[in-house]
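Morning F.,

Quick status update on the modeling queue. The single chain you submitted on Monday has been processed. Sequence for confirmation:
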Amino acid sequence: MTFKEYEAHAASTACYAKEVAISYVVMGLTNELAEVFEKVDNAAEAKEILKEVGDVLWYVAMTRQELDLPALEFPEELHRLDDTDVYRLSPSYLLQQVGIINGQVKKYFRDDDYSKPFPEKRKELCHTALEQILVGLQNLVTYIEEKELNQSLISIAKQNVEKLAKRKAENKIHGDGDNR
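Structure tokens below.
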């Protein structure tokens, strides 16, 4: 599965009003990243952490789409983590990246004509931040994989597509909870 294919599946389950799309997906991205690291901090089972990673992927895809950023690709799978890789999986690094996106969106609403598309001058920073979030997630998956499971970001994306398709078919996209 390519990221473009994943994004098409993700978009088919979007259920938010267009007029709040940018705010919704950026706040969701922030929230889901926080949920990943809440699970990590609470020593949740690997499969529970990886479900949350799937939810982050959905918001990465929709943020890319709503901000009309250049295409994304899944990062290369790692088999071992070096010091740079470990840094990129840290909550503080991922918080910095989502903060960059939040800051650009804030400035868009504050300084730009937000009745117009997201400005080109803001897109590069947001695109790079999303790429770094994907790298951080891949590193987290690699770290967990070394400990317990045989997963990749692509396999998590496929599982997320299946989960969302099932929820959509059962009319359970709305609501709260991991096990709807």
